[in-house]
Write a structure and sequence with these properties.
The protein is an alpha+beta fold and 390 residues long. It is built from eleven helices and 18 strands. Helix 2 (83-99) crosses helix 4 (138-154) and helix 4 runs antiparallel to helix 5. 44% of the residues are buried.
Length: 390
């Protein structure tokens, strides 16, 4: 039984030494698909079940008579769990963290077809009455709530900017999903303010959730165009939607502006299936190995972090370098491991659950990102006033 203490989650205090926060780890079991049901036999038989919303039970038919594999997580969502339920448990805390100035990341992990894109993106269209489509995933739900909170705070005089970018990592190469001309982009390890970022990635200002919806639609369409051209590229690439949220609050007495900023990452990982099973050879195999390099390195990073190794191989792949802060660094991070319930996928489901159980042991140290800017003149005047008083 994988049953280490689960994380408590929630924003930290932001004062003194940052508390070590466990990564929050969730599992989502999707319903049997129409294809699995139609195929009948093992494909149509479910081998995964949920116990008391916290544990997942996997009964491998090849190990009949043995104890099933059981692992516990922060929450396990069964096939009946809807998108709003996912948002309430996984996404809403991310909004709180972001508004408090913490970097926040959500990863979706799992084999192709397990429900990663459904969970993180889903249907990003609006229903008739302007409400989000029922199948809308975490990203847009997070931004809708984020902009509601921003509107509330702007009434109190705080000013916000939200800048978004959307990148794809395919074959260890970074492409700009919002500016398809941008490919072969480089990662830079910036200053404390910027952190790690992709150089020359286009940035897009968003003032409401509709702006974000259009950006996701545009980026997803670019991912899909590539998919038809390049043989299911989307299932073998990682996509990273990032928003930098900055809050500017002018202090009326000093004239100084306090700036709080947080980076939000929503990461749709490539399918975690093994190369051997896909039957890839030649160029396809080279491609599969290179694509899996990011995922393999992700596994090694998780292992190094949980074993407390002094060297963590972040720089061995684009994905782990770009998301260094989200893994063992300055970030509040959640992982949603997606699995199919079908017996046909028992091996992939097992390896997904083992990866997720390992990720539970990572501890991040998030701090509130804040700074003061500008109005040097006001500061000098205030300084002069204080000196006079003394
Ligand atoms: P992945 O991104 O992991 O390859 P997808 O998210 O594209 O997988 O899901 C594969 C298919 O299964 C899609 O048609 C999707 O709509 C459907 N699906 C996935 N998860 C669920 C779920 N929880 N409920 C209903 N349909 C789902
Ligand atoms: Mg997908």
């Amino acid at each position: 039984l994988y049953d280490d203490a689960c994380s408590s989650g929630g924003p930290g205090t932001g004062t003194g030494a940052p508390a070590a926060d466990a990564i929050r780890v969730f599992v989502r079991v999707r319903p049997l698909s129409a294809r699995e049901q139609a195929a009948g036999g093992a494909a149509a038989r479910a081998c995964v079940s949920v116990a008391q919303e916290r544990a997942v039970v996997l009964a491998d038919p090849a190990k009949a008579g043995q104890e099933p594999f059981v692992a516990s997580f922060d929450h396990v969502f069964g096939p009946e769990a809807g998108q709003e339920e996912l948002y309430a448990a996984v996404g809403s805390q991310m909004v709180d963290n972001c508004m408090a100035g913490f970097n926040s990341s959500i990863f979706v992990y799992g084999q192709t077809g397990a429900g990663k894109t459904h969970t993180i993106t889903g249907d990003v269209s609006r229903a008739e009455d302007g409400a989000l489509a029922e199948q809308c995933g975490l990203t847009l739900r997070v931004f809708r709530q984020l902009f509601d909170r921003i509107t509330g705070e702007e009434r109190d005089g705080v000013r916000y900017t939200v800048k978004c970018c959307y990148a794809e990592i395919y074959n260890e190469e970074i492409t700009d999903l919002l500016n398809p001309g941008g490919c072969g982009l480089a990662i830079r390890d910036g200053d404390a303010h910027r952190g790690v970022f992709v150089e020359h990635l286009s940035e897009h200002m968003a003032v409401n959730a509709d702006d974000v919806m259009r950006l996701i639609q545009k980026g997803s369409a670019n991912r899909h165009t590539a998919a038809t051209r390049m043989n299911e590229r989307s299932s073998r690439s990682h996509s990273v939607f990032t928003a930098v949220v900055e809050a500017h609050e002018r202090q009326p007495d000093s004239g100084v502006t306090n700036v709080r900023f947080a980076k939000l990452n929503l990461i749709d990982l490539a399918g975690g299936e093994r190369v051997g099973k896909s039957g890839a050879t030649g160029d396809q195999l080279t491609e599969a190995k290179s694509i899996n390099k990011s995922l393999t390195t992700l596994g090694r990073v998780v292992t190094a972090l949980t074993e407390g190794k002094s060297h963590v191989p972040y720089r061995d792949s684009r994905l782990t370098f770009l998301l260094k802060e989200s893994l063992g660094g300055n970030s509040k991070t959640s992982l949603v491991a997606c699995v199919s319930p079908s017996e046909e996928s028992v091996q992939e489901t097992f390896s997904t659950l083992v990866f997720a159980a390992g990720a539970k042991k990572i501890r991040n140290r998030a701090v509130v990102n804040q700074d003061t800017v500008g109005d040097v003149k006001a500061l000098q005047l205030e300084n002069a006033r204080l000196q006079r008083e003394l």
